[in-house]
Amino acid sequence: MSSVPTVGGPAAVDETRPSAKRRRRGVPGGGGPSGDGAPGGVRSGGGASRGAGWPFVVPFLVFFVLFLVVPLGFGLWMSLTDSSLTGHGDSAFAGLDNYTEAFRDSEVWQSLGNTAWFTLLSSVPLVLFALVMALLVHTGLPGQWIWRLSFFAPYLLPVAVVTQVWGMLYQPELGLFNTMLKAVGVDGIGWLVEEKYAMWSVALLTLWWTVGFNFLLYLAALQSVPDHLYEAAALDGAGAWRRLWSITLPQLRRTTGLIAVLQVLASLKVFDQIYLLTKGGPAGSTRPILEYIYDTGFTNYRLGYASAVSYVFFAVVLILSLAQLKIFSRRED
Questions:
Q1: Are the beta carbons of 290 and 114 closer than 8 angstroms?
Q2: How many angstroms separate the Cα of 78 from the Cα of each of 159, 171, 234, 260, 285?
Q3: What is residue 117's predicted lDDT score, i.e. its pLDDT?
Q4: Is 183 exposed, middle or buried (0-12, 13-18, 19+ CB in 10 A)?
Q5: Of 34, 53, 81, 239, most Cβ neighbours within 10 A?
Q6: Is 93 helix (H, G, I), strand (E, B) or coil?
Q7: Spatial distance between the Cα atoms of 78 and 105, rounded to a whole number of angstroms
Q8: DSSP secondary structure of 310-325
Q9: Residue 270's closest CA among 166, 141, 118?
């Protein structure tokens, strides 16, 4: 009686096991000549592919060094000197005297306080109003393209046009706002000439002008929320408010964090609209830190001291940015 090899026996193993000759030739399944197990004996990460991406990176590195690293280094060196816009005292090394003066300068602290106050007045509404506007459009209002255009169009206007239009609206005698107040028996308000109203007026202008960008980010995030979450919630009997609080807002957490960080940074860097609308007045109540740096460097010609103040402000912005990122990262965890 002839013996038949059983399944899993020696004959079966020999048929499925790669031969020594195949292994030596680097056939898939066996180790190649390099001994690293790569198919066909081809070395992974060979020398031919090394450095192939440098031609794509070098142009960016050149611009990065020329327009960011070099100006940062030059500005830091200038902050340690008595550099002047007139050219006098460029070689005088002042050390940390400019930084010491900056911390003792009351106008620096006043302008920093104005910047912080504007950031608070503008950032919170710019996040909340953008969210509400995006929710209204996303729920299916009739004529959505009109709403999207009207919400985003002001963001496309240049700052000179915006300040010119709102300057006429804020005009004490003939402006639209005071005309409407007088029509209902309320005395006109000095929107830009009274200290208690000036910063609020600038914040209102900024809200109307820039909310469209945050609105667009929120709208894109809403369109990426999976529909099956709302369908499952509807089957469970969840109403519109429950779906908003339990599905929509949690899904927008990352977008809200991004918008909050970007908005705070943008508000801290405010300059254009305030300079064109109030020039820091009345009595310096709206002058931000960047306008103080501009006045110090280009009006008083003290480039060295202006550079020192700008680096102090840079440190403040960096600390606030890192704190925000840490806070939002903890919330996500």
A1: no
A2: 31, 42, 63, 33, 29
A3: 96
A4: exposed
A5: 81
A6: strand
A7: 19
A8: HHHHHHHHHHHHHHHH
A9: 118
For the chain, count helices (H), then strands (E): 17, 0
Based on C-alpha coordinates, what's the Rg of the chain? Answer: 32
Contact 307, 78 (CB under 8 A): yes
Q: CB of 147 within 8 A of CB of 141?
A: yes
Query: Which tokens go with 185?
Result: 């028996």
Which 8-state DSSP code applies to residue 41? G
The label of the residue with tokens 């920093």 reads 112
Backbone angle region of 17, left / alpha / beta, with phi > 0 → left and psi within -120 to 50 → alpha: beta
Question: Which tokens go with 12?
Answer: 């079966």
Residue 93 phi/psi, 5-degree rounding, is -90, 125
DSSP-assigned letter for residue 140: T
Q: Structure tokens of 146?
A: 């009109």
Q: Which amino acid does the sequence have at 308? A: A
Residue 248, C-beta contacts closer than 8 angstroms, at least 6 positions apart? 135, 222, 225
pLDDT at 12 over 80: no
**Of 269, 271, 313, 310, the residue nearest 75 (C-alpha):** 310
> How is 222-246 classified by DSSP, letter by letter?
HHTS-HHHHHHHHHTT--HHHHIII
> With contact defined as beta carbons under 8 Å apart, do 331 and 111 qualify?
no
**Residue showing tokens 């327009």:** 67
The whole model's pTM is what? Answer: 0.79
Strand partners, 81: 93
pLDDT of 87:
73
Amino acid at 41: G
> 215 is written with which tokens?
């609105």
Torsions phi, psi of 36, nearest 5?
Answer: -100, 5
Helix axis angle for 176-183 and 159-169, nearest 10°, is 30
Per-residue model confidence as pLDDT tens digits over 204-244: 999 999 999 999 999 999 999 998 898 898 888 888 889 89
